[in-house]
Structure prediction request, 936 residues.
Amino acid sequence: MARSAKLGAVRQQPKRGVAARTRRDHGTPAGKSPSNRAAKAAERRAAIVEAALEEFIARGFAATRLDDIARRAGVAKGTIYLHFKDKESMFEELVRTVIVPLVSRLDPLPSPGVSVRDMIEAFARTFVREVVNTRRADLVRLILAEGPRFPAIADFYYREVVSRALTRMRALIELGIARGEIREKDLARFPQIMVAPALMAVIWQSLFARHAPLDANEMLRVHLNLIFGERRTA
Amino acid sequence: MARSAKLGAVRQQPKRGVAARTRRDHGTPAGKSPSNRAAKAAERRAAIVEAALEEFIARGFAATRLDDIARRAGVAKGTIYLHFKDKESMFEELVRTVIVPLVSRLDPLPSPGVSVRDMIEAFARTFVREVVNTRRADLVRLILAEGPRFPAIADFYYREVVSRALTRMRALIELGIARGEIREKDLARFPQIMVAPALMAVIWQSLFARHAPLDANEMLRVHLNLIFGERRTA
Amino acid sequence: MARSAKLGAVRQQPKRGVAARTRRDHGTPAGKSPSNRAAKAAERRAAIVEAALEEFIARGFAATRLDDIARRAGVAKGTIYLHFKDKESMFEELVRTVIVPLVSRLDPLPSPGVSVRDMIEAFARTFVREVVNTRRADLVRLILAEGPRFPAIADFYYREVVSRALTRMRALIELGIARGEIREKDLARFPQIMVAPALMAVIWQSLFARHAPLDANEMLRVHLNLIFGERRTA
Amino acid sequence: MARSAKLGAVRQQPKRGVAARTRRDHGTPAGKSPSNRAAKAAERRAAIVEAALEEFIARGFAATRLDDIARRAGVAKGTIYLHFKDKESMFEELVRTVIVPLVSRLDPLPSPGVSVRDMIEAFARTFVREVVNTRRADLVRLILAEGPRFPAIADFYYREVVSRALTRMRALIELGIARGEIREKDLARFPQIMVAPALMAVIWQSLFARHAPLDANEMLRVHLNLIFGERRTA
DNA sequence: TATGAATGAGTGTTCATTCAT
DNA sequence: TATGAATGAACACTCATTCAT
Prediction:
């Protein structure tokens, strides 16, 4: 059930195909529903973004057909070109569009009175809930997959997500070291270690979940135990 | 030999492929070069495998053109079909062909008198040398990327590599716990944690190395410190 | 209409196909030429059908190239696939498309006050005019030629044409016997005999006409003489 | 069962594929079997002719693959080119090779003391036995099918078979008229009429036999009744 | 002479992109 | 603005033909 969560930005749009509505349905000319041009256009664009991501995730960039995206979005193929220059730039723009809100949602708010472990654990839980157990895990995998062919995306992803997350994480680690919560001082040199099990979880869900389910929350908790020492009580 | 050497080469070899040789190279009649038919055929096949892997890694399955593979391998397009049924089964067979020797090479030999940490550290070093700092890292990324579209490969990879590696790792962890080298008993439930930084290293090299180099060996060492406690002396 | 006219043309029309027209022929806005989309599409489809039949007749199924059909029809190759699933089903659909109206046109109208011989002779004349001396003769030859490789077509042809024609012919023969016009009672067991010279005529025109012309009408008349006895007067 | 008769020239060769015999079977070096080179070559050639005809009949010229012919003949693909210039000339030569003995076998020997009807009836019986109920019927259909693409073959067939048969038939008809066996004098102008049911029989067997079996001998007999009048007694 | 691996031109089919409506 | 029919370049795969062995 978790896997049915939406990909982001776009709201729960009914996802009805072209067939589901009357052709040439010009909308209610003067109703309360989004009746002005701009809103309709935005709605269409959102539908395309949503559909495109689903398709790209399912098939990868090269194997995805614009026909399928259009059908899924309930628009004509030509309409896509009113919103995007071509397939390639659509893909790049898409990933950006979806990643940005994702990043901000995951940005750990620095709560002063809380232990570093609790902060990181809270972050981990959010990550599992919002990413690992979501179709967004596949988005991450998609980026890993298409990265080499889309250096622009790899760069963007590095800049906006990876680098930022690692910087944040390093700061937390240093705080943990300063507060005496973390013993291993070298950890600050490799914040990747802190994130590695999360990456593992994402990939596992996307590829091996059906072979062997993985309790991501538990795994991350155990990993934190290694770093912070086992929790005294609970 | 020739193939694996190439796939293992760290830096981007000139990549001229067999094509750069003179066509109709009859082989030196009295040299060490293979002069009989079977050997020539095997050589051709190896060239195709090599070329195909390079192309698949660089572009992914769908975007790779058989034309390019043939050109890079220095054979005609039709020749590919003397060795493989079609593009799809070529891809699957390829991945298998490359993974199998990889697995056996990484199988940690159970050295009785050695500490668990040393065994794992030795393994980690081998992994970094043979995979992370090699084009093989890209192969792993390729599998992660194409997995969903090639369930057969994902299954094979899970069965032959993932599952096997985790079982081996779990056994080592349990040994470490029994010997008192490892404190965190729950680690045996998540051998993925032990492997996670290695996965991180592989992906990092493949995607982000040019943004920020990563000393994989150091990272893995630090991670082992978390698990086994810091090394006493050195 | 346009198509059947063409297929029915006795001599080799200039065969320039639609391609010879100016591309982007917008149609005369106030002329009789079809100006709306559906009509244009139908026109295109007709052009493809026409071109395909010419090519299939001239070269047979396997040797016909879609490229040539497209060029002759004056459309792009991809356009063919907007109308037909693939080459094979195009061929089958084509044959059906052309045969059906042919059959209905040949259905002998049962004129009550006329002698059986006159009915058959009228039918024979129609057949010669509409089939034997027409490109349709080649279509029949095409069906005989490709039948074994297209059982669906052979079946269809048997069901819709052969079986139907023989049944009709048998009824006429029995009527002729009952009326005393036909002596040979066994003829009703082999209506094929009645049709055989027509088949011969079709094949002759298609293959040997240039070696030796054949007056199909005369031949059929002589054949009827054998069956009904020679005409008294004239 | 009838349909299993061989195609002609070539004797009952075992028709074993390559697999059936030892590779590199050099033949008995000094046995009684055809041991000299020429004989072996002729044998090979015969096998190719045989195999090629089967394939061409089954699939038509364009759809037949030399690979299949070679496999069926039990020779390597290259061997075909030792005997034939290319696929096209192989086809033409083949048809000639098979037709010639066919013609001579069917040439009605002019028996002086026999009635024309009996001569023709004997001929008809032979034709049914040797052609209609044989794979040779398919050969005729093949010629009809490929004729337009192989004018040389169509010409050859017209010259060697059609024209000759019609001339012979015309002579018989004239004899029949002279002797008073045949009433309809115009029949001499259209010997095709005499042959038409035979053609019908050939095509019927090849295409429609499975829908409705046809007793060719009976049909031809009834047809002769139309021409010669019904047989008095028997 | 016979082989069959290798070739590469050729063909059916797909699909991103355009553009008249 | 939205449509979707039409386009044609691109690509996987085939197969007649060659030629080194």
Remarks:
- Chains C and B do not touch (no CB pair under 8 Å).
